[in-house]
Please model this.
Amino acid sequence: MRILSICVAALLLSGCVESDVKLASGTLTSAPSAAKPKSIVVSDFAVSSDVLLIDRGYTARLERKIGAFPTFERKPRTIDRVNDEIVATIVATLREAGLDAAPGAEESLSAKSDAVIVKGRLRPTDAAAKKNEAGIGGGKSNVTADMTVSTFSTFGKRDLMSFSASTNGKLPTGKAAAADNSAINAVIAGGDGAKEKLSPDVESAARRLGHAIGDKIVAYAKAQGWLNEPDNDAVATKPADEKKPAA
Model:
């Protein structure tokens, strides 16, 4: 028993123990505990060639604004816009929880960034789906995102967790829906992509997916204590009489 205890302790100290956290919509595999990052960067999604992203209403609105463009440009333009919607939803979800998040790219990070990067790939939920059977828009919403979350710091790059999420996430209702919509639109407005709205069915599917992803990252952040850590800089700058009540 003593030998077993020593072995377990050694594993914990070496950081080799991993855990599977069961969530309502799947299993999230996480690495050992990580310190709270200064920021979280959410990058654009890679899209499997088997996934169809289509929104004829959006492309029509875009053409009315910028003029007609070749038919072969419709697919990449729609992918870019849906990408922006998913990323913006994730960012808004993380910010609402109290995390410093923003759209970005891994290439912009360095060892000194002390940041977490969120990356994903969209694929058909059904592995047996034929080309263009799965997608978002055109009556489709059967897409799954395979996600990886990694940290960039002076210790190098390290994967923190990986998980999958689908378009069955929940959307806020009532007053929360208005605040959520405003937060997402603010993220999109701050980017350099097209601002025309997606059609309701496409926007809904993209946001459900974004919320499903964001909620899992928030759950991880809570488990790591990121949302409970005090702002050391703020504490350090408080006047002495505010740090400790008078006796």
